[in-house]
Amino acid sequence: MSALLEATGLTRRYGHVTALDDVSVHLAAGERVAVVGESGSGKSTLARLLLALDTPDAGTVALDGRPVRPGSARSTRWFRRRVQTVPQDPGRSFNPRMRVGDAVAEPLACLRVHGDHSARVAELLVAVGLEPDAARRWPHEFSGGQRQRLAIARALAPRPDVLVADEPVSALDVVVRLQVVELLAQLSAAEGLALLVVSHDLGVVQHLCDRVLVLDAGRVVEQGPVGEVFGAPAHPVTARLLDAVPTLAAVVS
Ligand SMILES: Nc1ncnc2c1ncn2[C@@H]1O[C@H](COP(=O)(O)OP(=O)(O)OP(=O)(O)O)[C@@H](O)[C@H]1O
């Protein structure tokens, strides 16, 4: 499969700490990849670099072979139209003084996407399981799970090819978490959207992703299809992560 989003040899240091050390990742159209690892292994650093929100000390991130560097809104517009993100905390990701419809339409205006923005917002609200008239309401009128649906609608507004999300469901309770994971899976399948998801919840990974990449101390120590890696972990870190989730079967069943 040819790569849509491809990172090659990413290294990121913070002072004497090497957060990421020569990491390469590729994501094909429609593919769903998880990044897992213990706390401090470099997952969020990798997500930020893949979103061109941070500059690597070495390595490149490219979309369809075109390299991207963090920079002005104008210089990265082409990239942001196609690579979007969903925030970790839906509670904080909306301006309380902006109606939901305007918030969902915000990327369309910022990224100068042409067309009828109100119609697109109504379509998106329905796609994420909300009523079209939600557009007139305020963020505080929605539950955490509904706000995460709104955040997904906002991310999908410019019709991206890739969603990179760092712990997109960790702020939600278990039942709502599974509903939002289901929504992401369904949208990814329907729109051919590629997903790269950082998650400490291996149940979420198993439910949502095709392939998993295990990070340890900034390096990829294991990767492969989720079933194979979780079924027969080859690296002690993977085994430790799995051991820490005794209720995995219960979470995903
Ligand atoms: N802005 C920063 N300044 C200094 N050190 C940082 C910074 N961001 C990350 N680090 C360090 O880089 C390493 C990787 O951090 P990162 O947040 O990517 O890990 P993570 O796997 O996402 O962790 P967690 O699961 O706890 O969120 C850690 O040692 C962290 O302390």
Automatic annotation (TrEMBL):
GO MF annotation, one: ATP hydrolysis activity
Alphabetical keyword list: ATP-binding, Nucleotide-binding, Transport
Keyword Transport among record annotations: yes
GO process terms (BP): transmembrane transport
Domain ABC transporter, first and last residues per copy: 5-242
Pfam short name (any one): ABC_tran
Record's signal peptide: none
Keyword Ligase: no
Family recorded in the similarity comment: Belongs to the ABC transporter superfamily.
PANTHER family hit by this protein: D,D-DIPEPTIDE TRANSPORT ATP-BINDING PROTEIN DDPF-RELATED, TRANSPORT ATP-BINDING PROTEIN
Official protein name in the record: Peptide/nickel transport system ATP-binding protein
Record organism: Klenkia marina
